[in-house]
């Protein structure tokens, strides 16, 4: 499968100044930008910046960023699921994962996350993919936002809906371990029925176990 990537961009006006929402961005361009010190949800900022640069270099990897002047203040990643996860077991070329989305506190509440997803989906190539994301409450910034688990879940669902991702049921153990965790997905218009059936089989592995 050919992973073509078409660059798109938009400008978002916020109380803290304009943001450029753009991507997919190549590795060299990503490396040339500053990476905001508050992007710490997954690993220390320097390490996360390097991880994004590496993802951008993958054939299927896509990084879109929210940029304030020369500084990355938000991003979203798309790549094949982790080899250790259930979602990689089918070795589906047309299944990619929205692996991470993060926006610094200073630019939250101004639809930066929603716009990262909207700009992602401007690329027609996304209609060839099943895009999944797995939401786990232990990754959420409950302390920083002051939201409880259910309020945060609602915020995450609304943001993902902006990119066309919807809730899907699954019996995957880690997702099933807490009712706030969830699987969300977007099935592109050109995804074939066999791939959809394969995805359904990945979602439910214990369907016939009693």
From TrEMBL:
Keywords, comma-separated and alphabetical: Transferase
Q: What biological-process GO terms show up in the record?
A: acetoin catabolic process
Highest taxon of the source? Bacteria
Ranges for domain N-acetyltransferase: 35-118
Provide the GO MF annotations for this entry: acetoin dehydrogenase (NAD+) activity; acyltransferase activity, transferring groups other than amino-acyl groups
User: What Pfam families does UniProt report for this protein, alphabetically?
Assistant: Acetyltransf_1 (PF00583)
Q: Which InterPro entries does this chain map to?
A: AcuA (IPR024699), Acyl_CoA_acyltransferase (IPR016181), GNAT_dom (IPR000182)
Entry-linked SUPFAM superfamilies: Acyl-CoA N-acyltransferases (Nat)
Identification of the protein by name: N-acetyltransferase
